[in-house]
Amino acid sequence: MEAALTAAAAAIAVGGCGSSSSGGNGPVTLKLVAADYGTGPKNTSQKYWQSIATAFHRANPKITVKVTTINWNNFDNQVQTMVQNHQFPDITEGDYFSQYAQQGLLYPASQVLSNTGNLLPVFKSQGSYNNTQYGMPFTTSTRTLFYNKKLFAQAHISGPPTTWAQVQADAAKIKALGKIGFGLPLGPEEAQAEALLWFLGDGGGYMKGSNWTINSPQNAAALTFLKGMVNAGDTEPNPATKNRTTLWEQFAAGKIGMINGSPALLPIIKSGGSLGPKDWGSVPIAGKTGALNSTLGVCDNVAAFKQNGHQAAIKKFLDFAYQDKYQLQFVKEYQLLPATTSASNTLKSSPTYGSFFKALPKSVQYPSAPAWAQVKTQIQNQLGTALSGNPSKVLSSIQQVAQKS
Known about the structure:
Structural class: alpha/beta
Number of helices: 17
Number of domains: 2
Distance between the termini: 29 Å
CATH topology of the largest domain: D-Maltodextrin-Binding Protein, domain 2
Strand content: 15-25%
CATH architecture of the largest domain: 3-Layer(aba) Sandwich
Order of helices and strands: HEHEHEHHEEEEHHEHEEHHEHEEHHHHHH
Number of strands: 13
Largest sheet: 5 strands, mixed
């Protein structure tokens, strides 16, 4: 809590700085607020962005970039607070952008990035509002099903599951070994991601076209299936209270048989020390009747605010920051995927990242509707309770929030 308050104070202090531009060709200070993806002091995003800002300042001595990073889990709320208080950053790099585009606060991507065509095209629609792109992906990720080959061998399971029925049967066999069969993180960290993976398994999702479909029969069926797994003890107890990071660490420790994961799970497995490269596998997400040919594709966006009038300086900085070397440095530091075609092309044949890139072109993104910010919060806080209550009732409650926002 103390760290979160410190980050908030720092963010607002930076957000409250007056523009250092003297107009014309005078000095300019850009305020960059970014999410922190690091796991500790050694790889904090503050160091990553500061290294770029320092190199940029050497090449552009009249432009200074002041960097503030905020814990990834608190980023959305703190940026919203800055905007509400009219303490506008110049650039943000984090989660959503659409409500700011709706409010007319952002520069279109074409005005602040020279080569928008190099951004991965699969995320263009997700980054657009009213057919204009405002959100520029900086880092991306996809999801696959991770499984523990050691536990599968001990439970006499021949291979990874492709259907929900196989997931449940395999989870029951692993539970008999005294382990958690399937890790189901439906706590507030990222319930919206885990839920969507199961919704997709029965043809569901959050939106169809411009219509919210949160309370669809397909989504209710997915939660009803998960409720059955929870009641049978095939998952950890109380999934509504369990966060992704905690369960990923338990998977890395060899305590969980299966879990949905992203490339960010890879360093956790490595640091856990219990699973070697041959002890785990990564395959397409299991669906109701077969493995999915699409999965969740996530990007965190850069957004450029126009209230401080720094368009030219922002464009110079973003052109600099989107160089392949910085995209690949981000991959190395945080095990997330690049957001540009040129950087991605260097990694497609990688044994580590290849399976994730294979899933990316057909991936499904979160809604770009301005209401998504409020809807996501409701999902994080409420959806897990459906597994101990009435799935349809919980989904209908979230649907009402979406339609009113």
